[in-house]
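Notes to self after the Tuesday call (sharing in case useful).
The group wants a holo model before anyone commits to mutagenesis around the pocket. I volunteered. Ligand is S-adenosyl-L-homocysteine. Logging inputs and output together so the record is complete.
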Amino acid sequence: MSLTLHLKTGRDIPILRGHPWIMSGAIARQEGDAAADEADVLAASGSFLGRATLHPASEIRARIFDTRPEARLDEKGILERLTLAKERRAHWMAAGPDGAERLVFSESDGLPGLILDRFADTLVFQLLTAPWERRRTALLEALVAVFRPSTIWERSDADVRRHEGLEPRRGLAWGAPLAGPIPFREGDWQFLADVENGHKTGFYLDQSVSRHALSTWVRRLGSPRVLNVFAYTDTFGLIALAAGASSVLSMDSSAPARDMASRMQALNPACESARWEYRIADAFAALRQLRDAARQFDLIILDPPRLVNRKSKVQEGLRAYKDINLLACKLLAPGGILFTFSCSGLVDRTLFGKVIEGAARDARRPLQFLADLGQPPDHPRKPGFPESEYLKGFIAGV
Ligand code: SAH
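Result:
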């Protein structure tokens, strides 16, 4: 029941630096039990590199989950890793029983292909790779043992599953059925996670640090006019309202997201609705309309969906990032503040910064980078694995 992957010469170098992926072209040969779905990975020299899960249907043929030869992703291994992830979060996050946090962030937590979020006492997981299908029962048992949740909900409906020939799956996996969106607290705010039908696992936990930064900046600016583009359930917009924005205009193409935003607005007494407008619109067109109407804002948030999905689309995606950032520069009053984000794993921070520079230059506006934004501690980045830093942002003065 064991399998060994021998890599080609030189293909061990990124692995030794921490990159967990082994592409099909890096493998010289494989030997052992062809039915196994875990393997020892060896360098061309024969030295041991790590233990990996196997993905025969995918270009990413193996994913290293541990560098210790004895490591296994069996019941015991899963339980140990979940326990470790839980203990670490308890130190880092202090989210509390009515809070929310990402408990497992795939490779960064030594569990490639697994995403696990908690909203109060509900767990939501995504299985992104084939080896998890066989381990699904073991995973559920471990989740119950480690976290004692009331409900475990599955959202294995991400596109990436197709790379491994997997069909989407979503629904109740264990425990009590859900009674609508799940209320939870983040700092002073009361939010809702639409676990059943929302994006990803229902809520963008990855913007928690940026939400706090926004609250601080809105207070600092006094009573800014705020524009929140790609708002989803408008957590940024609602926080700006609570922090004293004189007006908030939020835009997204999704009508269900606006409904959820209205429900969250009603839960937070400080988010008075007279100062709030949420438009359903295509952001690219709506930004142009605002420009043509000579509207001005003091603070703009741009948090678009992933605009670069594959290597062949990098230039096209960069043009889209530049387009919206250029329009935002024009819509900002002098001295205005831009919160701008990219969640494209293929665009690194340096390149994204260059795009913002180019946008400001074309808009003939001076630019100052004031702070970097990015993933909170419950989405740890793995050294040597740039893909684990997918979210990057800047606070810029324009
Ligand atoms: N800022 C949000 C997350 C945004 S995710 C938060 O912190 O919760 C990106 C959003 O962009 C999604 O809600 C999606 O519906 C929206 N979107 C995608 N394409 C769009 C377009 N062309 N115009 C407007 N909104 C769009």
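Two things stood out.
The chain has three domains: 3-66, 75-180, 204-397.
The mean pLDDT is 96.
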